[in-house]
Amino acid sequence: DTAVSQTPKYLVTQMGNDKSIKCEQNLGHDTMYWYKQDSKKFLKIMFSYNNKELIINETVPNRFSPKSPDKAHLNLHINSLELGDSAVYFCASSQRSRDTIYFGEGSWLTVV
Amino acid sequence: GENVEQHPSTLSVQEGDSAVIKCTYSDSASNYFPWYKQELGKRPQLIIDIRSNVGEKKDQRIAVTLNKTAKHFSLHITETQPEDSAVYFCAATTTGGGNKLTFGTGTQLKVEL
């Protein structure tokens, strides 16, 4: 009964490939996020959706495309993967009227 | 946009000692300041938070203080234990409207026996 679950947990892929990471939350939250944590542990927001509407879109290459089919799901698709995309990608969720953000377990992406 | 600075980047203490981590923020509109603990290979987990209408908050061995005028906030851990060893992140945001958390750069805390 994981609150925020994301798959896959580990992903090793070659440069130039396209890959997706899926995220689902069962907390009934209306806002979902993607954060990227690089090798230096720095956590930075990439995207945020509220009720399937994109509300935060940071300076992220357009090779990254989020998709939210419903408010419980937020997927991240990455085209033409580059070495620099190697990182841990965390999905998270919150209730817009409240502040606490809950993170998923992370997806370790390694591009070789 | 918001900028959060965090110090120190690494902190080593003896078991039972106190640990203090300090953060400063730039956006005076920020009004929510959570602290997250991230163990190796795990997700960041909220350990305590404070809002701008409160100067101090305590939860057992951890406490957070906020100085709005100086735009800085601190995490205090007393009677540290080996299981407190982790990376700690401060963050800041304005509540509502998307809740874009800006994180500090993290502090690696090591509690030595």
Write structural notes for this entry.
The complex is a heterodimer of chains A (112) and B (113). By secondary structure, chain A is mainly β. Chain A is built from no helices and eleven strands. In chain A, strands 2, 4, 5, 6, 9, 10 and 11 form a seven-stranded mixed beta sheet that branches. In chain A, strands 1-3-8-7 form a four-stranded antiparallel beta sheet, with no helix packed on it. Chain A is globular, with a radius of gyration of 13 Å. The model of chain A has no long low-confidence stretch (mean pLDDT 92). Chain B has 113 residues and is mostly beta strands. Helices cover 0% and strands 54% of the residues of chain B. Chain B contains no helices and eleven strands. In chain B, the strands form two sheets. In chain B, strands 2, 4, 5, 9, 10 and 11 form a six-stranded mixed beta sheet that branches. In chain B, a hairpin with a 2-residue loop joins strand 6 (56-59) and strand 7 (62-67). Chain B is globular and about 40 Å long. The model of chain B has no long low-confidence stretch (mean pLDDT 93). Classes of the chains: A mainly beta (112), B mainly beta (113). The interface between A and B is medium-sized, with 23 and 24 residues.
